[in-house]
Amino acid sequence: MIDISEKFETLRTAVAESSVKANNESLDRVMRGETPKGDVLSVARISGLLAAKKTPELIPYCHNLNIDHLDIQFERAENCIKIQATVKTIAKTGVEMEALTAASFAALTVYDMMKGFDKEVIIGETRLLKKRGGKSDLEESFPVPKKVAVLVSSDSVSSGKKSDRSGKLIVETMKKFPVEVLDYQVVPDEKDVIRSKIISWIEEGIDLILTTGGTGLGPRDVTADVVQEISEKDVPGIAEAMRSFGQKRTPYAMLSRGVVRIRDKTLIITLPGSSNGVRESLAAIFPSVLHSFNMMEAGGH
Predict the structure, then answer these.
(1) Which one is catalytic: 39, 71, 112, 221?
(2) pTM for the full predicted model
(3) So where are the chain's domains?
(4) Which of 189, 182, 185 shows the shortest CA–CA distance to 208?
(5) What is the full per-residue pLDDT of the chain (301 aa) written as tens digits?
(6) Is the peptide bond before 188 cis (omega within 30 degrees of 0)?
(7) Which one of 28, 155, 215, 241 is most buried, by most CB atoms within 10 A?
(8) Which homologous superfamily is 10-134 in?
(9) Which residues is 87 bridged to in the sheet?
């Protein structure tokens, strides 16, 4: 199965459609519930519902999902009955296969209950009409890429005792988004050095500063403190999202003192020092965090 452990949960919706074609007299009998096997549409609705719940058992690569809403509707159209299935869930992955399975099995059930009195019955096209939810719905675009700078705060990396992984991971990850990394620096865990570098970037018009390191409880972990001191406005929801996402993966995430602040129109996000912490934090907030620039520019939602 595809690894979705680094995805976050969102409201997911999918609508799928199928149809059953037959002669008009037979279709009218189905709509009235006057067939040898009884009420076709009620049985088909139940069949589609049960099938949707069993999608992971029927299709090997589908994940197990809790379905929060499932609705199957039937519409009499010219020479056919249209079947539309709508599925909703709050999950890490989409429900299009559940919707398609519901529509397909409902159609199969209609076919099965009609084949005894209409030899011309056939199943029509089954297709996905629409789906919503996930990161694709949260993507942002800008006329000009937002300017990004990456700061690694680490005594050991700046002295050459260790190689940097976290900062390079940030730079690589940013290639997926409508931003441009203009600077990447490694500095020791010194307040004055960190302060000077961040302020200089803000004065240069950098839109987004991503730091890694200095958010823990150690005596030299000062990055979060510096950012707190030099900034004007707090954005606690972003930091909370990172900690909440990380907490589901390791209890140590609660020990992060990472903050997200604004100075002028520069957003400053302090990430953990570990590469796993960086990877998880970025997964938790991107691309939705980029919407903050529209808000800061009075664009609203």
Answers:
(1) 112
(2) 0.79
(3) 10-134, 139-296
(4) 182
(5) 888 888 878 899 999 999 999 999 999 999 999 999 999 999 999 999 999 999 999 999 999 999 999 999 999 998 999 999 999 999 989 999 999 999 999 999 999 999 999 999 999 999 999 999 877 767 788 999 999 999 999 999 999 999 999 999 999 999 999 999 999 999 999 999 999 999 999 999 999 999 999 999 999 999 999 999 999 999 999 999 999 999 999 999 999 999 999 999 999 999 999 999 999 999 999 999 999 998 998 765 5
(6) no
(7) 215
(8) Molybdopterin cofactor biosynthesis C (MoaC) domain (3.30.70.640)
(9) 14, 70
Place of tokens 């096997």: 37
Distance of CA 246 to the CA centre of its chain: 15
Q: Is the domain 139-296 a CATH 3.40.980.10 member? A: yes
